[in-house]
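Protein: AAA+ ATPase domain-containing protein
Species: Hibiscus syriacus
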Amino acid sequence: MKEYWNSLASLLGVLAFFQSILQLVFPPELRLLSLKFLSRIFHLFSSYCYFDITEIDGVNTNELYNAVQIYLSSFVSLKGSRLSLTRALNSSATTFGLSNNDCIVDTFGGVTVSWKHVVIQRQSQTFAWRPLPEEKRGFTLKIKKKDKSLILHSYLDYIMEKSNEIRRKNEDRLLYTNSRGGSLDSRGHPWESVPFKHPSTFDTLAMNPDKKQEIMDDLKDFADGQSFYHKTGRAWKRGYLLYGPPGTGKSSMIAAMANYLNYDIFDLELTEVHNNSELRKLLMKTSSKSIIVIEDIDCSVNLTNRKKKNKSNDPETRCVSGVEDGGNSTITLSGLLNFTDGLWSCCGSERIFVFTTNHVEKLDPALLRSGRMDMHIYMSYCSYPALKILLKNYLGYDETDLDSDVLNQLTDVVDKAEMTPADISEVLIKNRSCKHKAVTELLDTMKIRAEGNMKCGSPRENSSDEEQEKRALECPKEGSGFEQPCKEEENEEMMK
Ligand SMILES: Nc1ncnc2c1ncn2[C@@H]1O[C@H](COP(=O)(O)OP(=O)(O)OP(=O)(O)O)[C@@H](O)[C@H]1O
Ligand SMILES: [Mg+2]
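Structure follows.
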């Protein structure tokens, strides 16, 4: 060991000697080159090697940088002496980080490695497609040359895995939005995020318990299904279509799904996306273990002037939204389908697509076919089993807490009243300080609604939930978001 230090000291002495000679002999421009050359020689003899992990790799964010930061923050608070502390807006967790130029030592598989956080000021920008951060940040990993293969193969994978685990466990999950349109922030992200705090869970969701259990089982199977999807050659993704009247819990269901699986949510505002390539970029920037949501998909469809301009007979190339200007600034249905189904949909894994609509009959069947939307979930008006959940949630009431006569009346009227869980919640919240009053007022409201429905003829009288969807699938063009070109247009096409 002593010998080693002696030889290192003499090598450094030689380097210093050469440097002073260089300063005397060489002009300044050659000095830099010669120093680089000497440092190469030094590294050649050194038993260490170094890896730089920069925050931004070209134009993209370096996932490894983020992973290292999260991984180190999990134990840096115990080992480090000078730390940087951060807390995101609305976040409930404080994050520890290494300060500028500070080092920390870690061990993996009996091997010791050293991490250094390097922050340097970026030179003033002359021209850039997008503003870059003022600082250039990165980690330098220092390891012994002989440990290179262990560290590069196992340690970095371990860090990625560990950081994902930590992120899921400690960090608030995030709700992302693309409200900024397609523009990127200084770190190259098209999505903005806030901590996701929606309290809805499957316990609080009022719906038929069997249906609820079926959905929960399906989600669990999906989340645990890595090997199944791999074995069967399927992309590890799943699509759910939630449809039903307003206030029946579609958005609450999405929140419950995210809370159940511990996934982030990417809430895609389709009207902010200008064309297919922007849509693809947004998709590429979503992370694994996430739910990608398009709410009210029928309302994202802009039919203005579509008949005149869009003459394609192919339903999959019709315009979905945006202003048409020769095809460059529109999203086509095929673009949307590729988003959920095509090759690009497989960049990343373990992702769930959820579309919601109040009018399933307005959707193009291409969107509904299985493989795209694997499960169609009808969120219905409040049924008796769902009412029981609401009474438990808001009043703490079980069936046994209710008078048998009231119970019978509720059972009798609940379906006829066709009230949404949102309507019922309103009555219960308003009277929650007096439980008895809450129940009687709810019963009265239900009776009035049921009577009204009897008089006017309920829109649902002649069709069951499933029938509604079947009808929509059988004659999708009526009122569809993707109408057939009219006869005149068809003739024009044929003349060409
Ligand atoms: N099934 C349900 N279980 C529990 N609460 C519900 C349910 N449906 C609605 N609610 C209550 O009503 C409110 C509105 O529900 P939500 O936003 O989930 O409805 P939605 O179906 O998404 O409506 P829209 O079609 O207008 O988007 C929620 O805040 C929730 O408290
Ligand atoms: Mg909603």
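Remarks: Residues 2-25 form the longest helix (24 residues).
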